[in-house]
What we know:
By secondary structure, this protein is mostly helical. It contains nine helices and no strands. Helix 5 crosses helix 8 (135-152) and helix 8 packs across helix 9 (156-170).
Amino acid sequence: MDLPALVDEYLDYYEQTQGVLPERLESFGDSYREQGHLTRDQLYDIAYESSTRSAYHVENNPESRCREVTANVLAVDGDFSKIQLLCGLSGFKAPTASCVLAALDPERHAVVDTRVWATLDRLDYLDGRKETFDAADYVTMLDPIREIATETGHSAAEVGYALFAHDDDVREGTLH
């Protein structure tokens, strides 16, 4: 498989999907790096981009906890630790938490969900489909995403968008 061609093709296709808007995440990332944390309202907006149905859960987090957790994400090393911290916030399972990490560091992180997992499975990087996943599964996806990013010259975030778009294009039937 010609991975550079696949990523290029599906990055172009991505804008036709219902995926998270890269420009929006980029602006959240700018704010995150500038402030050193995210507010509850900013986290709500990111969650809304990712999953409109469950974003309201973010409002259950105290403002101080949102700032504390997102500041701590900046302070810790390790992909698992970063995603696990975010998953401790109400309204943040691994797919939504991945949006925060991709906003913060698009070179190393990607927005992931079941579509990205399915494409990695199709490309023989992973084995078997998943309908839900956790922090450990996120870390499992990062290795092949970063490998593809290195091979194609794209950021991890761009690879994630392309993998999402590929599944959106080729999947037959419903998502779940």
